[in-house]
Amino acid sequence: MSKHAHLNLMEVKNSLEGRVEGLEGRFGRGPMGARDIGVSHWRYAPGFRAQAGHRHREQEEAYLVVSGSGEVLLDGDVIELREWDLVRVDPEVLRAFAAGPDGMEIVAVGGPKPEGGDGEMVPAEWPVD
Questions:
Q1: CB-based contacts of 95, cutoff 8 Å, min separation 6
Q2: DSSP string over 62-97
Q3: 0.85 cut: is pTM over it?
């Protein structure tokens, strides 16, 4: 295996194609051959609000908003997001995203992934306005 890798993340297959309307997700860990770091790209359509979120047993993550705006739900707390906001999340914290009127794009970075993964999908309970 090479000691380096290069790819265009937008050329990686959209893993959610045909599964979740209004959401795209591209995962770079596998195509890059990365052992200890995962980088993914998420594109949320305008007004999209996730009905499910996720949390981990071990994996800490950070999310960087690269365009648009929206919100992140973190264990029941809602934080407004705008371009270039960076959010770090402990593994056990439930996280889910909602896009603003112009949509939102996020780059997510995660640490080492345990064998078999450690993500758990959980319904997102957004506060009622």
A1: 53, 54, 55, 61, 63, 72, 73, 74, 89
A2: EEEEEEEEEEEEETTEEEEEETT-EEEE-TTS-EEE
A3: yes
